TrEMBL record:
SUPFAM superfamilies the UniProt entry points to: Radical SAM enzymes
Cofactor(s) the protein requires to work: [4Fe-4S] cluster
Identification of the protein by name: tRNA (N(6)-L-threonylcarbamoyladenosine(37)-C(2))-methylthiotransferase MtaB
Radical SAM core domain residues: 143-373
Classification via PROSITE patterns: MTTASE_N (PS51449), MTTASE_RADICAL (PS01278), RADICAL_SAM (PS51918)
Transmembrane segments: none
Any one GO MF annotation of this record: metal ion binding
Alphabetical UniProt keywords: 4Fe-4S, Iron, Iron-sulfur, Metal-binding, S-adenosyl-L-methionine, Transferase
Domain MTTase N-terminal: 19-122
Amino acid sequence: MNARPPEAAGAPAEDLSAGPVRVLSFGCRLNTYESVAMRELALRAGHEGAILVNTCAVTAEAEKQARKAIRRAARENPGAPILVTGCAAQIAPDSWAALPGVARVIGNADKLKPEAWAPAAPPAPVSDVMAATETAAHLVTEFAGRARAFVQVQQGCDHRCTFCVIPYGRGPSRSVPVGAIVAQVRAVLEAGYREVVLTGVDIASYGTDLPGRPPLGQMVRRLLALVPELPRLRLSSLDPAAMDEDLWRLLAEEPRLMPHLHLSLQHGAELMLKRMRRRHGRAEALACARRAQALRPGLALGADLIAGFPTETEEHFAEMLALVEEAGLTFLHVFPYSERPGTPAARMPQLPVPLRRERAARLRAAGAEAALRFYNARLAFARLGQEESVLLESPDRGHTEHFAPLRLKGATGHHGAVLRARVTAAGPDGLLAEVA
Ligand code: SF4
């Protein structure tokens, strides 16, 4: 699962509107990428005045937010056709089609196909995403004011974690052939982007459906070789159970691969990981973190973690808190468990929602402490003369290669530029620096 920070899972939509088509995107980076691609398809197909809503099914809150946005859009824009897609719409198309103003529900398997947007296209039943065999690569060169470009390399998931509905929204794992990825990366570099984030649902499963089953590491190595002008490459969430040897070698040897990995851990207690049906245990998660730090000293490790999973005791929770320290995790994406209808976990004994939220808050506090330790370590390196390379997302703010947030004293840069900076202070919100 490659969710954007958890607050995004229940957050209001990201407005990716441009020209006469309004676009409201919920959920993950993959949805962001697809929303930009669909906006272009809708424009080209002549859907002037339409409102496109790309839904997310990761949490109940994300669905609630999307329904609220559709009702408001229908109220404020009477007569405007609302086109709905995304994982929540794929899983329960009729209930979304019944909302006010909804003119069409487009399935996840069809959302990047131009024919699905043809104005005259008859309302068709949402196709069975479980039967999807390919993933449409789409050239997207504009990311709504973002400084880094998202490139989809994979889609869907073959696993069945007990809390997750994503496989039912996105279908089986499908990979984008490396040639299409290279073309997409070259296009965004030509459009001026200096950093690319490879995204998907379970990118560690890259290649399992391609001839010769090239693993993620092999694809990344070929991409970096074929696009020597790509300065910064970042990976979205990785499953610790599926890191291949090529990827480990690249992490150790390739400076253009950013020293920041985000791991899809989900928990830190052995029994919870078993009940989640995760592919890794606590020992594997720890070994993965330690190997990454040994290969790339100073690397930043992020992780997705769920608090309040059914049957979680205070002892299980304490094991997760301990893992944050033992594994040297820095940036935590913490989700209070949200039961999803039809999942095995939803049939397990549930914890009270206030307890889930209280544990999520304690885990976030542990994450904030870990992040501050990391920022102070970067300050200590600066005192030894080390500089940071920062990608600016605004004239005075950006993120370093380790994905540490950084503010520049005396705004001199411009959105999308990569600068050298010398850290002068560290605090809970990140680093303060001056241009080197
Ligand atoms: S089933 Fe598991 S691996 Fe697949 S998307 Fe969901 S959480 Fe990720």
